[in-house]
Specification:
This protein is an all-alpha fold. The chain is built from six helices and no strands.
Length: 124
């Protein structure tokens, strides 16, 4: 098993991961049913996002947090998202870059969750 080496590897990770997200009972509802994500449009953006994080390609521009605020996300959804991301990464890759993307995914999930809590996005 190899490390994440290039954009083809990132594409494999992103497409495999979001395939699992789309099939996940809770996350699939958020992405497919509520948000109506156009996967053909979304996946290339996610490849650019992770390519920028890992290889500093500069191809991703945007404010991902804002796109998530209208979604019916619960605090536990972040754990589900991160667990799927980690599981997928571990199934496909081993190495320094694989560990780095998992670390960054944890930071992103944590930052989004904290910010949503601070913005009062969660009920209860």
């Amino acid at each position: 098993m190899t490390d994440i080496r290039n954009d083809e590897d990132i594409k494999k990770l992103v497409h495999t991961f979001y395939g699992k997200v789309a099939e996940h009972e809770r996350l699939g509802y958020i992405f497919n049913d509520f948000a109506g994500v156009d996967w053909d449009h979304h996946l290339p953006k996610m490849v650019d996002f992770w390519s920028n994080i890992l290889f500093q390609t500069g191809r991703y521009e945007g404010r991902p947090y804002r796109k998530h605020t209208p979604l019916p996300i619960k605090p536990e959804d972040f754990k589900s998202w991160y667990d799927l991301f980690t599981e997928t990464t571990d199934e496909l890759f081993r190495g320094e870059n694989a560990e780095y993307v998992k670390e960054m995914a944890a930071k992103i999930a944590s930052a989004f969750q904290v910010r949503m809590e601070m913005d009062g996005k969660f009920e209860g």
